[in-house]
Amino acid sequence: MSRNISGPEIERLIQYLGRIPGLGPRSARRAALQLIKKKEQLLVPLAQAITDAVNNIVICNNCGNIDTRDPCTICQDPKRDVSFLCVIEEVGDLWALERAGVVSGTYHVLGGTLSPLDGRGPEELNIASLIERAKDDSVKEVLLALNATVEGQSTAHFISEQLEDCNVKISRLAHGVPVGGELDYLDEGTLSAAIKSRKQI
Predict the structure, then answer these.
(1) How far apart are the two ends of the chain, measured CA to CA in Å?
(2) How do 81-88 and 105-109 pair as beta strands?
């Protein structure tokens, strides 16, 4: 039976850090210890950054990106090619593509994939708003840049069927994305090759 060896505030910090994906109990303890040891350099600025994030971060009503403004920075960028709409599962995928610098158009974040087992149907995702955006005359191509998982590919197939009545070219990622791979874990070269080698569905 494990015993608490520190005050409740420290235990609570460890518990919340442990809820972050990729951090287990041991990693959470190590992270908490580093934050506490470097209180002024790390813990205090982190607490302020979290407070600022809570108070200022919003979800873009246009594309689903997270930012401190709505519409987001990308949607407001006049240099973006509004004729090219890149559909991704999560904001992390958007960040990965932006790091690679391979998308000059705009984005649409679905908020996940279709998963009947998890109770996620079309209504739980940003699919209806995607169809509305695709109907706009300014949109010429919709790239379904979804992860090469079973859920990602079934979601891409569903969306391509929904877009059939829209006057747009529908494409998907091609070379470079391995089956079972997730965009956020791929390197910039792989992402660049996948974007440049996209194929129409």
Answers:
(1) 56
(2) parallel
Are the C-beta atoms of residues 130 and 122 closer than 8 Å to each other? Answer: no
The CATH topology of domain 66-200 is Dna Topoisomerase Vi A Subunit; Chain: A, domain 2 (3.40.1360)
CB 201 within 8 A of CB 160: yes
| Sequence-separated (6 or more) residues with CB below 8 Å from residue 182 | 93, 147, 149
* Eight-state DSSP code of residue 66: E
Which one-letter DSSP state was computed for residue 174?
-
Q: What is the 3-state secondary structure (H, E, C) of 32-43?
A: HHHHHHCHHHHH
Give the tens place of pLDDT for each residue, 130-175: 999 999 999 999 999 998 888 998 999 999 999 998 999 999 887 6
Q: Kindly state the tokens that stand for 50.
A: 């979290």
Instruction: Name residue, tokens 């109990």.
Output: 25
Q: Is the dihedral of CA 153, 156, 157, 158 positive or negative?
A: positive
pLDDT of res. 3: 60
> Please, what sign has the CA dihedral across residues 117, 122, 124, 130?
positive
Amino acid (1-letter code) at residue 134: A
Domain 8-56 carries which CATH code? 1.10.8.420
